[in-house]
Write a structure and sequence with these properties.
The complex is a heterodimer of chains A (268) and B (295). Helix content of chain A is 47%, strand content 12%. Chain A contains 13 helices and 4 strands. Chain B has 2 domains: 2-123, Glutathione S-transferase Yfyf (Class Pi), Chain A, domain 2; 132-289, Rossmann fold. Chain B is 48% helix and 10% strand. In chain B, strand 5, helix 9 and strand 6 (183-184) form a beta-alpha-beta unit. The chains are: A alpha+beta (268), B alpha/beta (295). The structure holds iron/sulfur cluster (2 copies). One iron/sulfur cluster is lined by residues 111-114, 122, 146-152, 162-163, 166 of chain A.
């Protein structure tokens, strides 16, 4: 039975003081350790470990105690791990595994240029993933409002790859068809269809298809046309929007590769 | 001559960022760069693909990596979006062997293979790190003296990782502009987001981001903004009119590719730098710097 253990650790001042960040990293490098949180009081750190049977907790505790900077260790609590398939799905995506290290400081949300328009801030979305709240997360607008600016990722003190996680959440949302009606998702679909037919992107075609389809489905105010026409006209008159769509030569080869990818299936 | 595999990307090739592709070609010779365009490349897939299907997205990128590997040269792209997509695919193929196995099988379906031997680099990185500022300075014949430039890095060229600059406070493009003789102004929003392709589905959100950039540049006295990415340039240039309407401002700040300003400083015929593709015109601003080289 999958088990979670909470281990309280006292750091030896002489060997470990002043390097908490390194000690945290050292513990987190252990495959069983999921997260390490600095605490104050009788103990200095709390490590959360996941093991497959309760018996293995003692082994992990011994390993930690063997470190020369550990002065004392106390097993606070051992409990059955609650299955969390949604969290597992996210952890299994490239970069998703870094989510484990989030300690909810909020630096990502404070850095995000678009946080004001998001249903949940980046920090909250991580908390919700951890809480297994699949539906709330995947039907929210948060990841669709992410501009992939990487500010959160660059600044996260725990090296959580938040931008990659946003992309993973978009994929999971598409897989469960919870993206329906999001304009960003509609644009993405048209973009991909263009690659599948032409191999390269032609912006005129893509933009007209996008506005056509979103206006038709009532997702976009038709007045957008009047705002966008001057932009399009200027791009055209400055010869920055070729009308004739460019095409790659070996489209068949590209599609054979994509077909195989579909057969192998899955985003994981 | 230094040789590189070249991936222009859809925008800089023939799309809204065509001036970037044209001016890159124009300065390449002076820089001693031979940019060998990949034969029949495809779109990098960009964020739309990454955000829809992981395996397909990496395959789309990997086809380009495989083409580049055939040339035996590192792959250089002028587009920050193509750069991050191709670079990330390259890194993930190394970091996740299971993923690599699947991608190998997919590429094989198209009679291709990728062993993971090349590196993906941004055009600016190559010019800044390989060619270097000393060489650039030695080629300047029209120093851009007194031209106040806001050096705009955008996002994906410097984040999440950058080998030659500080990701929290980049300075390389400022140094580069100074090497051309220009005067880089303080520009606090230099590494903030322009909205990228969100300008299509989330116009008003993106216009808000572009407004902040223009405001920061203008209030610091910049006469123009220089960019390293075709998406940034398009948002700053083609959408400046919409920003002015939405925020009741009167910005008129040309957004020029660093290759265009470099070309002018090198004394390259301005006709070859595609300056006429700019929607916010730069002619008057630059006319003082353009000297026709003595025949
Ligand atoms: S910045 Fe990093 S550690 Fe802090 S809340 Fe965001 S993801 Fe978690
Ligand atoms: S990458 Fe996305 S979530 Fe992160 S700061 Fe930028 S817009 Fe916000």
């Amino acid at each position: 039975m999958e088990t979670k253990a909470y281990l309280m650790i006292k750091v030896d001042r002489e060997n470990g003081n002043g390097h908490t960040a390194e000690l945290v990293k050292e513990l987190e490098a252990m495959s069983e350790v999921e997260a390490v949180i600095p605490v104050s009081g009788k103990y200095d750190l709390m490590a959360v470990a996941t093991v497959d049977t309760p018996k293995k907790v003692a082994g992990v505790a011994d390993q930690i105690q063997a470190k020369d900077w550990v002065k004392g260790l106390h097993i606070l609590k051992v409990e059955a791990a609650v299955p969390n398939p949604f969290l597992d799905e996210v952890l299994a995506t490239p970069g998703g595994e870094t989510l484990r290290h989030c300690h909810q400081c909020g630096m990502c949300s404070a850095s995000c240029p678009n946080v004001g328009q998001m249903d949940y801030s980046p920090r909250r979305i991580i908390a919700l993933v951890r809480a297994g709240r699949r539906f709330e997360v995947l039907s929210s607008n948060t990841m669709w409002t992410c501009a992939s600016c990487y500010l959160c990722t660059a600044r996260c003190p725990q090296n959580v790859k938040i931008t990659d996680i946003m992309h993973a959440l978009e994929r999971l949302s598409v897989r469960r068809s919870l993206q329906y009606g999001r304009n960003t998702a509609t644009m993405y679909k048209i973009f991909i269809d263009t690659i599948k037919s032409n191999g390269v992107i032609c912006e005129v075609g893509m933009m007209s298809k996008f506005y056509f389809s979103t206006i038709l489905t009532g997702k976009m105010n038709p007045l957008i046309v009047f705002r966008m026409l001057p932009v399009a006209a200027k791009l055209l008159s400055h010869r920055r929007m070729p009308i004739r769509a460019a095409k790659m030569k070996e489209q068949k080869q590209l599609n054979a590769i994509l077909k195989k990818a579909q057969a192998l299936g899955g985003t994981q | 001559m230094r040789e590189y595999g070249y991936f222009p990307g859809c925008s800089a090739h023939k799309g809204t960022g065509i001036a970037f592709g044209v001016s890159t070609r124009a300065v390449a010779e002076t820089l001693g760069m031979n940019l060998i365009e990949l034969e029949d490349w495809n779109c990098c897939g960009s964020t739309p693909y990454t955000s829809t299907n992981e395996l397909e997205a990496i395959c789309i990128a990997a086809r380009n990596l495989a083409l580049a590997e055939k040339t035996g040269l590192d792959l250089v792209t002028p587009c920050s979006d193509c750069y991050i997509i191709l670079k990330q695919a390259n890194t993930e193929l190394k970091a996740y062997p299971d993923l690599k196995k699947k991608v190998d099988a997919c590429l094989a379906a198209g009679n291709m293979e990728y062993q993971g031997k090349i590196q993906v680099r941004h055009l600016f990185e190559v010019i800044y790190s390989d060619i270097g500022l000393e060489f650039i300075k030695s080629k300047v014949v029209n120093p851009l003296k007194g031209l106040k430039v806001a050096a705009y890095y955008g996002c994906q060229m410097i984040r999440p990782e950058c080998s030659y600059d500080d990701i929290h406070n980049p300075k390389s493009l400022d140094r580069f502009m100074a090497a051309l003789g220009a005067e880089p102004v303080s520009f606090p929003m230099k590494d903030r987001c322009c909205g990228g392709s969100m300008i299509i589905p989330e116009l008003d959100l993106a216009l808000g981001l572009v407004y902040k950039l223009l405001e920061s540049a203008a209030s610091n006295g910049a006469q123009c903004i220089t960019t390293v990415c075709p998406l940034c340039q398009t948002n700053l240039d083609a959408y400046q009119g919409l920003v002015n309407r939405k925020f009741r401002t009167r910005f008129s700040i040309p957004a020029l590719f660093f290759t265009q300003l470099m070309g002018i400083a090198f004394g390259i015929d301005p006709g070859a730098l595609a300056l006429d593709r700019s929607i916010v015109p730069a002619d008057r601003l630059l006319s003082g710097f353009i000297k026709v080289p003595a025949a």
